[in-house]
Specification:
The complex is a heterodimer of chains A (468) and B (453).
Chain A: H1 4-16, H2 22-38, H3 40-51, H4 55-81, E1 84-85, E2 96-103, E3 106-110, H5 118-129, E4 133-137, H6 143-152, E5 162-164, H7 169-175, E6 182-186, H8 189-201, E7 206-209, E8 215-218, H9 224-236, E9 248-251, H10 253-271, H11 287-296, E10 301-304, E11 308-309, E12 314-315, E13 318-321, E14 338-343, H12 347-355, E15 362-366, H13 370-379, E16 384-387, E17 408-409, H14 415-420, E18 422-429, H15 447-457
Parallel strand pairs in A: 3-4, 3-6, 4-5, 6-7, 8-9, 8-15, 9-14, 13-14, 15-16
Antiparallel strand pairs in A: 1-2, 2-18, 7-17, 10-13, 11-12
Helix pairs in contact in A: 2-4, 2-5, 3-4, 3-6, 4-5, 9-10
Chain B: H1 4-16, H2 23-39, H3 41-52, H4 56-82, E1 85-86, E2 97-104, E3 107-111, H5 119-130, E4 134-138, H6 144-157, E5 163-165, H7 170-176, E6 183-187, H8 190-203, E7 207-210, E8 216-219, H9 225-237, E9 249-252, H10 254-272, H11 288-296, E10 302-305, E11 309-310, E12 315-316, E13 319-322, E14 339-344, H12 348-356, E15 363-367, H13 371-379, E16 385-388, E17 409-410, H14 415-421, E18 423-430, H15 448-452
Parallel strand pairs in B: 3-4, 3-6, 4-5, 6-7, 8-9, 8-15, 9-14, 13-14, 15-16
Antiparallel strand pairs in B: 1-2, 2-18, 7-17, 10-13, 11-12
Classes of the chains: A alpha/beta (468), B alpha/beta (453).
Organism (chain A): Bombycilla garrulus (Bohemian waxwing)
Protein name (chain A): AL3B1 dehydrogenase
Active site (chain A): 209, 243
């Protein structure tokens, strides 16, 4: 077991208790902030090399959003760490009943390649805030960022408590043989199953941030221009390589026709007449992903875009019209700059279509009629929901971010990350006196004692009189 | 064998019909459960007596009172639990609706245990119904009378398709676990917990595992020993030691060991009389297999109190072992019986180290007059839950989450925590299609200025 030494080193640090004081956690979090500030250019450069990530996007997702999470955490950590006192009944008035937030111990964070800094750093913020030690396993696919993280993070964080492990599938498999106290995984559902199965051997709790096909319903009553802009922004951000991107559109044939010129307009507005020359449009991360995406272009008909360049791993912002549910583009998560449109007759059909499929990470619905937006919300199930926009629900740190069913289990962002990496321990600190109050619970058991117990312990329905 | 696919399929179809979603429906089902518990009290108590020799008032207070309380709490609080929770917004979302919606997960599987066979299926069932799910209940086959009764009663009071009972042992449970559920709550051993989680992993099903372990009990020499020992005696020997949060073993300094033994011995007489075997309030071991297992733990030990056993009635007297070696068999596995080992330690530091060398327990107990010492023991250890200066009681505070950590489990339930366990917390952001100018800041091109801002 090549990682046993590393894990036991971290475990020894954990047992020493050094990660527990607030001051220590704050110091490590502040160091993470300095990492983001000092290495901003390196991060922008590495992500550009990895997937042609536009600087603005990289700044927004890898730096700005991460700093927001850091600041929310630093601003609130001492409150989050406090014991939460809970209501007590009559006999416990002199006792103290509270929920203690305990760290788990040594946690493992496995991050994917598409937002390679954000997707390890935001979980790590919560792990540190909650008082844990952590091993970070960045994705080998975003290899420039992986190298950056492996080389630079150790200059900022306490190396006895935080370590980076690099490598691919074989290394991750060996790493997962070790016992961790929590595993946080972001990636695909098939690998999510493998991670959870490995975790089961050690009874390790997990958070799985997975994916799926995020449907985007556009009703007939809507401002087509604004819809097109918001959908195009969400779809083509990071060249479509976003777990919460609108994966496919559901609309009537009339709306499909109305949307097309609006989408063309939006794409031109964003990326100019030749997106390949725009500094604001990304590239596909690898040859394998490029080939996979190119094969999807045969679905339906190419209404916008469709151009590709293998050498650059460039795929133009593309919209496919009249896509059938049986087409390749509808069999897997697209994860690229291709937007299939599936035509349906009405909202009910759209909702049935969504519900017939695995629960996605997010459901989108666009309509000027708020009743329609609410209907889609109420009649579907998904990790999250965003009405009349795309992606934005994850920028609000007060909203939990996670999937359900095939799209994942658990949630994070803001306080939810801290809670994810904490064990909520129910504690009751009783008084040694007033022993006579305990008499009804002791044997020998009698009906009279039972009556006393019932009256002191039961919850009375409102409107009935309480026995003093 | 019942057709698991059919049963789960029916529950899923019933869930999809949407009828379990309105709050009125859920409350109506909970009211029906309340009626069931009140009307069938005699039958429930009889089943518990047959399975575990639990006496009437004892069984009522441990299994029925808690269920009624949980039902009333759920019916009262459901509207507030289920209400969408608005969240703090930022500048960009000021005009929008942002909230967390509580939604049912779908079809929930509840696997019960044999030691508190009624409450351990009922309490999770209540939470799952309150959260709007369909539920498949699998009571333990070891407590067969209660299992049979639950299978008979639930269909008489609840919606038959939404809420189903599956009976059987290992083969039936294994078959059931191949089906897809939207959450599984399992109460039982760590070994089987692994199997349940591995089965759940195939479907990416979230799990709540209420497992066990050896719950340590540290007695500081500065404490009211008589009171401490009375409370410990109560928690240890209730249900004949077959309680997941029973104090499993005692840690104390050698100087107070004999006083601890004396006090517990005196309390045992108070509770069960001169001849424990004749007391209607003292239970029996659930079956021969566990009887033999527990008796085997006594080998080579110094028996200070008890030790008597009667195989025919699965009776094991309340037993205390002294000067127990940390390496002995009785210190390896969860005892789950009326045997209380005392391991001596020189100080609270040694006790803390002893506890931390072992798997995280479900419960941790510490008795002391010194508040500082108690705070220290809590701060320097980890466990599912804690009660200081008493035992068991943290599990009856309705607002405390009840669950384990590490080998003692994952997730929690009871009260509102059940509702949250069985719900999906869905992040909802609803914006307006107007006010597009606000969005221009984020769109390409010309965005490098934003980077420099």
């Amino acid at each position: 077991n090549p990682y046993a030494g590393l894990v036991s080193h971290l475990r020894a640090s954990w047992i020493s208790g050094k990660t527990r004081p607030l001051e220590y956690r704050v110091a490590q979090l502040e160091a993470l902030g300095r990492f983001l500030d000092d290495k901003k250019e390196e991060i922008l450069e590495a992500t550009e090399l990895d997937m042609g990530k536009p600087s603005f996007e990289a700044f927004f997702s890898e730096i700005l959003l991460c700093k927001n999470e850091l600041n929310v955490t630093l601003n609130n950590l001492s409150n989050w760490m406090k014991d939460e006192h809970v209501d007590k009944n009559l006999v416990m008035q002199l006792d103290s009943a509270f929920i203690r937030k305990d760290p788990y111990g040594v946690v493992l964070i496995i991050a994917p390649w598409n937002y390679p800094i954000h997707l390890f750093l935001v979980p790590l913020i919560g792990a540190i805030a909650a008082g844990n030690c952590a091993i970070i396993k960045p994705s080998e696919i975003s290899k420039n960022t992986e190298r950056l993280i492996a080389e630079m993070l150790s200059c900022y964080l306490d190396n006895d408590c935080f370590a980076v492990v690099t490598g691919g599938v074989p290394e991750t498999t060996r790493l997962l043989e070790n016992k961790f106290d929590y595993i946080f995984f972001t990636g695909s559902p098939p690998v999510g199953r493998i991670v959870m199965t490995a975790a089961a051997k050690h009874l390790t709790p997990v958070t799985l941030e997975l994916g799926g096909k995020n449907p985007c319903y556009v009703s007939d009553t809507c401002d087509v221009t604004n819809v097109a802009r918001r959908v195009a922004w969400g779809r083509f951000f990071n060249a479509g390589q976003t777990c919460i991107a609108p994966d496919y559109l559901l609309c009537t044939i009339e709306m499909q026709e109305k949307l097309m010129p609006a989408l063309r307009q939006a794409i031109t507005e964003f990326f100019g007449p030749n997106p390949r020359e725009s500094p604001d449009f990304g590239r596909i991360v690898s040859d394998k992903q490029f080939q996979r995406l190119r094969a999807l272009l045969g679905s339906g008909r190419v209404a916008l875009g469709g151009q590709t360049d293998e050498a650059e791993r460039y795929i133009a912002p593309t919209v496919l019209a009249d896509v059938l549910p049986s087409d390749p583009a509808m069999q897997e998560e697209v994860f690229g700059p291709i937007l299939p449109i599936v035509v349906i007759a009405n909202m009910d059909e759209a909702i049935d279509f969504i519900n017939a499929r695995p629960r996605p990470l997010v459901v989108y619905a666009f309509s000027c009629d708020s009743k329609i937006v609410n209907q889609v919300l109420e009649r579907t199930s998904s990790g999250g929901f965003c009405g009349n926009d795309t992606l934005m629900h994850v920028t609000l740190t007060s909203l939990p971010f996670g999937g359900t069913g095939n799209s994942g289990l658990g949630r994070y962002h803001g306080k939810f990350t801290f809670d994810t990496f904490s064990h909520h321990r129910g504690c009751l600190h009783r008084n040694m006196g007033l022993e006579t109050l305990n008499t009804p619970r002791y044997p020998p058991y009698t009906q009279q004692k039972l009556g006393l117990l019932t009256s002191t312990f039961e919850v009375k329905r409102r409107g009935t009189c309480t026995l003093l | 064998m019942q057709n698991m696919q059919q049963i789960v399929g029916r529950a899923r179809a019933a869930f999809r019909s949407g009828r379990s979603r309105p709050l009125e429906f859920r409350i109506q089902q909970l009211k029906a459960l309340e009626r069931m518990v009140q009307e069938k009290e005699k039958e429930i108590l009889a089943a518990l007596k047959a399975d575990l020799n639990k006496s009437g008032p004892n069984a009522y207070s441990h299994e029925i009172l808690g269920v009624l309380r949980e039902l009333i709490l759920a019916m009262e609080k459901l509207p507030s639990w289920a209400a969408p929770q608005p969240v703090k917004k930022n500048l960009l979302t000021m005009r929008d609706e942002a909230y967390i919606g509580y939604e049912p997960l779908g079809v929930v599987l509840v696997i019960g245990a044999w030691n508190y066979p009624f409450v351990l299926v009922m309490q999770p069932l209540i939470g799952a119904i309150a959260a709007g799910n369909a539920v498949v209940v699998k009571p333990s086959e070891v407590s067969e009378n209660t299992a049979r009764l639950v299978a008979e009663l639930l269909p008489q009071y609840l919606d038959k398709d939404l809420y189903a009972v599956v009976t059987g042992g290992v083969p039936e449970t294994t078959e059931l676990l191949t089906q897809r559920f939207d959450h599984i709550l399992y109460t039982g051993s760590s070994a089987v917990g692994r199997i349940v989680m591995a089965a759940a992993a195939k479907h990416l099903t979230p799990v709540t595992l209420e497992l066990g372990g050896k719950s340590p009990c540290y007695i500081d020499k500065d404490c009211d020993l008589a009171v401490a020992c009375r409370r410990i005696t109560w928690g240890k020997y209730m249900n004949c030691g077959q309680t997941c949060i029973a104090p499993d073993y005692i840690l104390c300094e050698p100087s107070i060991q004999s006083k601890v033994v004396e006090n517990i011995k005196a309390t045992l007489k108070e509770f069960y009389g001169e001849d424990v075997k004749l007391s209607p309030d003292y239970g029996r071991i659930v079956n021969q297999r566990h009887f033999k297992r527990i008796l085997g733990l006594l080998e080579g030990q110094k028996i200070a109190v008890g030790g008597e056993a009667d195989e025919a009635s699965c009776f094991i007297a309340p037993t205390i072992l002294t000067d127990v070696s940390p390496e002995s068999k009785v210190m390896e596995e969860e005892i789950f019986g009326p045997v209380l080992p005392i391991v001596t330690v020189k100080s609270v530091e040694e006790a803390i180290e002893f506890i931390n060398c072992r798997e995280k327990p479900l419960a941790l107990y510490v008795f002391s007059n010194k508040k500082q010492l108690i705070r220290r023991v809590i701060a320097e250890t980890s466990s599912g839950g804690v009660t200081a200066n008493d035992v068991i009681m943290h599990s009856v505070v309705p607002d405390l989450p009840f669950g384990g950590v590490g080998h003692s489990g994952m997730g929690a339930y009871h009260g509102k925590h059940s509702f949250e366990t069985f719900s999906h917390r869905r992040a909802c952001l609803v914006k307006d299609l107007r006010w597009e100018f606000v969005n221009r800041l984020r769109y390409p091109p010309g965005s490098m200025e934003m980077v420099r801002l």
